[in-house]
User: Fold this.
Amino acid sequence: MQVKQKVYELYKGTVERVTGPRTVSAFLEKGVLSVAEFTLAGDNLVSKCPTWSWEAGDPSKKKPYLPPDKQFLVTRNVPCLRRAVSLEEEYDAEGAEVVLDDDEDGEGWLATHGVQASKAKEEEDIPSMDTLDIGKAEEIKSIPSYFGAGEKQDEEEDIPDMDTYEDTGDDSIASTQPSYFVTEEPEDDNILRTRTYDVSITYDKYYQTPRVWLTGYDESRMPLKPELVFEDISQDHARKTVTIEDHPHFLAGKHASVHPCKHAAVMKKIIDVLMSRGVEPEVDKYLFIFLKFMASVIPTIEYDYTMDFDLGSASR
Amino acid sequence: MAAKAEGRPRPLKVEAITSCVEVGFGDALRRLKLDVLGTDDSPIPITGYYTPCTHAKVSGLFRLCPESLVPSSVNSFGSRNNCPVMGTLINTNNMRGFQNLDMAHLLREEAKKILHDIMSGKIEGDPSLLLRFLVISFADLKNWKIYYNVAFPSIVFNSRMTLLSLHSASQVLSQEEATSLSKSLKEWRSSNETTVLPFFLVDISSNSSATIRQLKDLKDCQDSNQKLLFGFYDHGCHQDYPGWALRNYITFLNLRWKIEKVRFFCYREKRGGLDLQKSLIGESLFSAPNGWDDPDYVPEAIGWEGEKPGDERKEKKLKEINLESMNPASQDEEKQ
Assistant:
């Protein structure tokens, strides 16, 4: 497996070297992005969702076809409140999955639940493909409520690792015992298991699409073993479309990545749906649609892709 | 959602910072030791990256990453999501050296630097110096491991800091004030010049319009009858406690500007903008005792990460980064 992957990476690298970057837009026809379009869409994401930023990454891994300070996009410290596995058990009970692209490989993208399930409290945290109300030409406002609604209901849960310090002053300072620390020990069954993720988006020159990478941290902010990341990936994708690899812009560590081989096809399908409803999506909105689509693969990682503006121009 | 509206004065408690040390930092340290440091274990300046709380359920980041070890002369990394903070790294050559470090002494030395920066007026120019931090480490190159501890020094005086009140900002501000404050902070956070400054002044005039100013512009806030809040990027996400940064801030305001009663503003974000529910406005009371301004005075300090009541220093829990995935030998094994 490892060797096969290495050979493949070598092949892909060679193709990337000898072929020039895409310069002509094929966004509507093929669901792919040119380098300039990736930069444009990234700028738009950063300006609408400031939790995302452009970064340069390691200088030795700089891609010459991208601007030096805009090599990839990243949002850090994104909470992942529970495991995708537990989420899916609930969905199975609801019986409400929708296959978006069920091709012969059986690697179709899944929308994690149908519209009818979204009424339940548990589902409100989780973005769904179906509520991306693509057909309407009006402003799309449905997405922000996912985060807002979830926060209020979870408010009573404890925050883990809450060390508090009390300045008792007077007597204890000179003494050798640090008796002024007060620790709030969370109730055992009440600990919020909050993993966090750094989510980065790189440009994959071979597939001409964005590519998502995940770097996980456990509840005490120690790096998470990449294998454990699979617990936070929709089980239809774990170990199939999601692989553990070297990051194109970081020197160290192994990172989980959603393999981009199907990205263009799925994006093309979404674009077709939009077009059939009379909306021509604008290319600078690509990453918003893309991140919404990624949410079906990593349903419990609550990154920001708030969309409170038009997707594109209505042609009616 | 709202903070408990407790009115009675109580000792100020704050939420500690949990550092986030990336594998990339460990790898960069490994290479620095191999290529540059050798057996040199003298302190070197490093950079940490601080953010306010950005999500209701997790506190803000304090990261150490590969850029942390790039010398500050060439390090241009920094953005709204990565406010650079100066720190010190002491990398020892072996486990014994690491364990023999006098952690209490090292912490006091860092606290003394903070005290010096407060008194010299350096903080006004670079407020992030209030967040100065310390890392001690041992890079075990043979076993592909980095052992480390991080401290966020906070000066402790022989008198207590008292919290008089603490509320969610949404409860304290009028609608007009809240709207104006959100707008001003959005501008502050989107300007390259100010977004990396974690401490600032909030000036709310009698007509409810809010202006955000840098600490060095205090004189512009001291006329008329406006409300003055001492704002800071609060990493904490707890509704009943401000974050760690408040302690050194209060110390600064008292020692340097002789302010005993501080109205503070804990800035917290949601989706990249001000979160009025999570942000806190409170009032604290503190006056430093005599004697601290002696030039030889070495302050008491606290701040080793994870320090708990009754901890014996010798049994301090080490944190470690595993770099095994960088080991070419282990990668070869995987292939077979």
User: Anything to note?
Assistant: Residues 16-153+193-314 of chain A form one domain. Helices of chain A lie at 2-18, 27-30, 35-48, 84-94, 144-153, 226-229, 263-276, 286-294. Chain A touches chain B through 59 residues (CB under 8 Å).
